[in-house]
Amino acid sequence: MTGHLTTVAGVPVDTRHWIGGERVASAETFTDVSPIDGGVLGEIARGTAAEAHAAVAAAKAAFPGWAATPRAERARLLHAVADGVERRLEDLAVVETADNGALLRSHRRGVMPRVAHNFRFFADWLLTLDHEDFDTRGHTNHVSWDPAGPCVLITPWNAPLMLATWKIAPALAAGNTVVLKPAEWTPMTASLLADIAAEAGLPAGVFNVVQGLGSEIGDALTSHPDVRRISFTGSVPTAKHIAASAAAQLTPLSLELGGKSPLLVFADADLDLAVELAVEQYDNAGQVCLAATRLLVEESVAEEFTRRLVEKAAQLAQGDPRDLSTDIGPNIHERQLEKIDGFVQRAIAAGARAVIGGHRLAGRFYAPTLLADVAQDSEIVQEEVFGPVLTLQTFRDEAEAVRLANDTRFGLAATLATGSRERAERVTGQLVAGTVWVNCFFVRDLQAPFGGSRHSGVGREGGTWSFDFYCDLKNTVTAPKGWQENG
Length: 487
Ligand code: NDP
Fold this sequence. Notes:
Bound molecules: NADPH dihydro-nicotinamide-adenine-dinucleotide phosphate
Radius of gyration: 24 Å
Strand order of the largest sheet: 16-17-18-15-14-19-20
Number of helices: 15
Structural class: alpha/beta
Largest sheet: 7 strands, mixed
């Protein structure tokens, strides 16, 4: 670590904010550590309201120029950012793994290519964004997507750059300018992205990064009168706080929150596939908002399903996420581990049975856990754990399956394992969820709407829905008459 530069997994990373095309320091810093071994990764600028306001001011100043930049040029620049992400893919992958402990092989093969794709997809979508004019008694209606202004984007630590760029790309494509506030546990790749954006030629102030603690700088960003959109991914309590703060200016919000999604396994399902789907829920050490953490299994196959699941889960390799044979890495932070274990121990004290796991392991690891004998109204069934903890419940018929599936305050996703197309259609129609997967999991296309119902979120992003959110939609009605003869 020298001055404002630190080295993470061999990659130099600037620890300051990125505001108006310049690196900006703060008087104080906070320490970022790696979940892999607890080693210090860097001392990061600890933003205050002053830096938050400076970033919004930079975004406001850059907005008119960026909004007026022709669509084709904006798209070209976003593709240049994607090129930069691809050029630095290995740097981004190793830094992200060091910072959040997720698997290096996933970052290399899936996540970072997806980061580049986020930019390419929304750049290309922008060029096709159109609504056919329509006629009202001879008057022409023309719908346009006007850039809204500076956007504040606030993101969590479980998939830092993936989730940030899924907001940054459409916000910028739409002609807005951006202030990103990454999670304090994972500040690193946002800083690298600032370098990449600058190298790609994004004008100063179009993309800004403010580092710091949400509890300290959040309000300065979310209640700011010059901010035109807030997109947040994170927990329900923080979302409520942000919604209240944004209410001061009636700033439109997009909220992508937690979940307690079900995996419904019907007796007519391919049981091996159902078990594979269940085991996938331990991915990223269970730190996935979409994870189907409630296994709901038809009574007649529950015993066999559980036997196969236990067998399969025992094969998961838990360890260093840099080792390419590892399946499950560490959990993000000591505080998160305490939270996970608290949920599990309270559930066991209340009568749950740990079929597997149920305890911490050395370091920042939690044993993949399956809890049976859980009551529908218990905390472990109702609350998001955000760790490798699944619950197992059985149902007698379809009606009971749907009732249990819908009986939480969340509605992010649901997964079905069934061999019957008719059943899949019937059940899907009754589920409260933003995304339903049938005999598959985590297949996500950027053109699809994404978001949650109830406490899982407000609004949808993806494809045109992203532009609807990040733009002020305008309808222009033009009369057929009234033109000057020579006009
Ligand atoms: P938090 O809500 O704690 O934090 C999310 C972000 O909000 C962080 O950047 C945090 O900063 C910031 N923040 C904290 N307080 C404030 C505030 N007062 N004002 C403004 N910003 C603030 O969530 P976690 O980071 O713990 O993330 C886990 C949660 O995210 C889970 O509930 C998970 O389900 C959800 N999630 C949802 C997804 C979805 O798409 N639906 C995807 C991934 C995760 P700081 O880090 O400094 O506290």
